[in-house]
Specification:
single chain; alpha/beta; Rossmann fold; 6 helices; globular; binds S-adenosyl-L-homocysteine
Length: 214
Amino acid sequence: MTTDAERKMQFLFALRSKGVTDARVLTAMELIDRAQFVRGYFAGRAYEDMPLPIACGQTISQPSVVGLMSQALRVSPRDKVLEVGTGSGYQAAILSHLARRVYTVDRHRRLVVAAQAIFTRLDLTNITALTADGSHGLPDQAPFDRILVTAAAEDPPGPLLAQLKIGGIMVLPVGQSDAVQSLIRVTRSEDGFTYDELRPVRFVPLVEGLGKES
Ligand code: SAH
């Protein structure tokens, strides 16, 4: 039989072996229990390094991808972060341990409500979850030190680039929805934007407008 402690050790070992080496990110991923964000049929598989289905036909990302994206974002404890694509809320919960303030938006109200309930239960008081079309960013709270997009667009959305502070970093998957996508890091300086291609990934598409039920 596998104990909880053994399962957690295996989970962290798998993250390290996939290249998640940042100590703050590993600590956050040790503290936040992914099983809290995976309900029902798939709950027993929460510690496996695979994406899993959640409500509204969406997915909770693979833990190693969450770790690699979080570390690519180079979050500091003073940062105000925007996440586009709340989904289950797992990535936002990890970010809440790394940043000062996290805003997370999803186009599906049902996902936002469910995620907010988990944040409240886990006492993650520095996260604000909102129903919104994240392709427009969050103008009321802009600019942001860091922006993380967890759904794939063909190109980085203009409003998100505009809402990034000078010195800010955005990490996002780009590419056609069903074809190969690349995870890229955009860094904004006084002179403009620099783009680094990090690795191939596969995300659900960034869709404009709110979900039907929202
Ligand atoms: N970060 C999530 C996984 C996200 S899956 C987690 O940790 O579980 C991608 C999410 O992006 C989906 O929930 C989808 O509804 C959302 N999404 C897609 N297009 C969007 C848009 N334009 N604005 C906001 N959310 C969007």
